[in-house]
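To the team - flavin-adenine dinucleotide complex, inputs and output below.
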Amino acid sequence: MDKVLGQSVPRLEDPPLITGRGRFAADINFPHQLHMRVVRSPHAHAEIRSIDTQEALALPGIHGVWTASDIPDIGPVDLRADRAAEVLKPYRQPVLAKGRVRYVGDPVAAVFAEDPYLAEDGAELVAVDYAELPAIVSVDDPLGEFAPGVGTEVAIIPYSYGDTEAAFAAAHAVVELDLLTGRHSGVPMETRGAIGRYDAAKDILELHGAAKVLHRNKETLIRMLGRKPSGLHLYESHVGGGFGIRGEVYPEDVLVLAAAQRFGRPVKWIEDRHEHLMCANQGRQQHHWARMAVDAEGRILAMEDTFHHDQGAYIRTHGVVVPNLTMCLFTGLYRVPAYRARAHVRLTNKTPCATYRAPGRYEASFVRERLMDAAAAKLGMDPIEIRRRNLITKAEMPYTIAFDEPEAKDGEIDSGDYALLLDKTLAHVGWDSLGPELARRRAQGELVGAGIGMFLEEGGLGPSDGARIAVDTEGDVEVITGGASLGQGFETSMAQICAEALGVDYRRIRVIHGQTDRIPYGIGAHAARTTVMTGNAVHATALAVRAKALDVASEILQTPGDELVIADGTVTRRGRATGPSITLGEIAAFLAPASKNRGAHAPGLNAEEFFNTTETVFPYGIHFAVVRIDEETGHVAVERFVVAYDVGRAVNPMLVEGQLVGGCIQGLGGALYEEFAYDPHGQPLAVTFADYLMPTAAEVPDVEVLLTEDAPSPHNPLGIKSAGEGGINGVGAAIAGAIDAAISTPGAVTQLPVSPQRMRELLRDRQA
Amino acid sequence: MKPAAFEYHAARSVEEAVATLAEVAPDQGRILAGGQSLVPTMAFRLATPEHLVDINGIEELGRLAVEDGVLSIGACVRHAAFHRPVTDGGLGAILTFMAGHIGHYPIRQRGTFCGSLAQADPSSEWCLAAVTLDATITAQSTRGRRTIAGADFIQGIMTTALEDDELLVETRIALPAADTRFGFAEFSRRAGDFALAMALVSFRLSGGVMHDARLGIGGAEDHPRRIPQAEAALDGQPPGSQAFEAAAAAVAAALDPMEDAGTSAQYRRELAQCLARRALESAAESAAA
Ligand SMILES: Cc1cc2nc3c(=O)[nH]c(=O)nc-3n(C[C@H](O)[C@H](O)[C@H](O)COP(=O)(O)OP(=O)(O)OC[C@H]3O[C@@H](n4cnc5c(N)ncnc54)[C@H](O)[C@@H]3O)c2cc1C
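Output:
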């Protein structure tokens, strides 16, 4: 196998998964384990007057029942991001509610039993006396008290640069919009799960079923549980999807660990779907009031946006990352001379929110692209032309977006050719004929239209990640990383990078991830970092192993190192495949610690290297949608969806496509189907899959992917950018534009998701 | 989502099933058919029956037959049995078309026709069929057998004429005249979801006008029912947009639709009106048998 980097080679992960040998959290069992069931608040906001656990404790098979008073030494679930921000600390979620519950699903007590059925029986017997309090359900409701003296507006965060006031005063035209994004989230096929185990012989506390950011979570958990770094480890097994929400530290993770230690028995908790839909992080719900100033030619003079961010009941591990992400790339691919944004981060009595795939960005792209469509309509311009006119050009790269606020992170865009991607997208969809064709169909009475959403992404946040690689005497390679696999093909892509650099078959590479006892550092898998950071660390380490192998081979083969090549695990002279050779396995044997030949060489064919960077990468994309609306039922059918995306360089195009298509379908969910709705008392209305409507294969088109590699990143040797969020970012924006076009009513869509009933209302408004 | 403890009884005959049911009915004993409605509600502990009487092992309840002009559907006949027409002509074809709208493939392999009637979900396709096509339902208990007309059987959301100790043994539908045309239309958010509204229609044609018109609406009100005002707007009229629009308008006027957090009464009414017209159009297009 010569070239493997950049090829769509089959996934290494698949054999166990497709033969039913996968090992997910629920598959993990330990002898003598207890099962945990969490008693949850049925009220959105209430005071806890008393909790009576006697009856539950009396039930045979119940091993223990905990309330907050049983774990007085365990603090609230700590922050991972924004750790230093004192203003956020009062809003952290207790592991078990103390005195007050703040959303339906808030953990109040934990029942530990011999089997999961008994645990549920016991949970039903825990009697909690509540005094209901008024609930804040809408983020626009008057502010209230989170706790005595602590208000529900957590922070007001500004982002700005340039003179917006002057720009609006001098504008040829101003558009102003009031927009809402609906509450939805990542809903992985596998629910959360946590199995705590205390190994008394080694004094190590273990958390199984962990995911995403194991090393960071370990830091949080040792802080919360007062353990030494060497006394707590996290283990990832197969993970059935993450999307940002799985793998954060939640109350249940802390509970199983504390209980395993106290009871001296393993404790297993598997979230059920009902719990998942009311307890796992939700997201996206924001209310925006946005304005944009343009000149007579449609050039943007300024953007302004104020929004309420619905954070739900508590500040979870992410702090206020999502509102920050909404603001920092708000201006997208456009040249915007002046910008001013203000986020009001507010608590409501609903499930807490945090990052969901393209956090803040899906929301921002919806708002920004709605502004572009509105400006086009106001000036009588073509929506594509107004966008093209405002694109940052290739000649302007690298391009810096510098904010006035010292704490706001500047955007230093590494590379991009946005106009080229727009040209390619329009050519791909055949816009010259498609546009007139849609107009013709509309003239015949069909409600069809196209919409576009353009966006900028950011990924590969450092500062540092490392890898360890060792070749054994059989020539097999072990790559140890601090990365994590949520199903995205991590093992395959890391193996490809290593294989290419080292000269081995990628199928002989075993990639380790998600085990904190194998490597003491790691960035896990989040914020589209893994391929960039861990990938480049693997690359650097593989090159170091290669150098070591060639060094030894040149000695053995009596040939200068630069005349040697490694292919398929064998070192030969360049152009002399049949001449003298030595395999990597033989070199590893030569370098074995006890080897007589080793001489002065350090033992082992192995290396450890790091990739360090202060820079991030900025991939970008264009989403293009064609929808057809059933006027009578309000059903919106997506006829076509194109994701055009520049990934810099694709390690494995098939995996990138998988990321983009999956993300796109989730985006369609948020645009048309999925919504965590609540009644006026804060009762969640979508707690089963009958009410939380995820699109299925029957609802979505074959997503077309146009993957380009026109703007590799200059910031890393592989040139790669990130791919995790490019499929979802602009979907809401594109669908909104397409619906407007289909019903020939610019600005019609002001709220996501567009359910059929809302669509009918839009059609009725249009007739009126 | 683990059910509360219950006692399981596997009945081997109808007699044994009704005898056991008579015993356990006072202690919240329930029949277990396909389990596609009952088991999820038990998992949520919304239902906590102390006894389940499983009828899946009773061979005679699997009977699906056409005899003497009547289609008989035993209590264990699955939705999937209708994936292919069970009888010639329009009736077999329309039941096949309707079956395709019930949940998803795996659900149709377990769920039963009669279980759907016993469950009486307002959006059940089979409940709409039973009401519109005047099915006859046979119930049996230790007290004996009785028959109930489809329209009397279904009384409201998950409420039927069945007594706690009665087993629904079979449902019978008289075969319609060979020239009867059928049409069905429903709207749901996603493929396989319970419908927000649905319409089943049938009529015959002679001398260029419709007669024996039936028009039933499901999913909109708390139980499916025929809409006599709409049927009156069809009988004696030539099939075509004028009569169909009039019947659809009569549907909209007659309905008192349910309302819930996600769906307004007005939207359901509009849907029912549209679906009634679409069902009529498809009946007009379908070739008479
Ligand atoms: C995801 C999903 C989607 C679905 N979508 C649809 C849909 O679109 N349309 C639709 O109509 N249905 C739908 N269903 C429900 C499905 O059709 C069920 O199979 C049906 O409602 C009940 O039939 P069952 O045989 O499974 O009954 P069970 O679940 O076994 O029983 C249901 C109830 O009826 C009683 N019962 C059952 N049989 C008898 C009998 N012979 N005598 C007395 N009592 C009896 C039981 O005691 C119980 O109370 C869906 C189900 C699921 C899980």
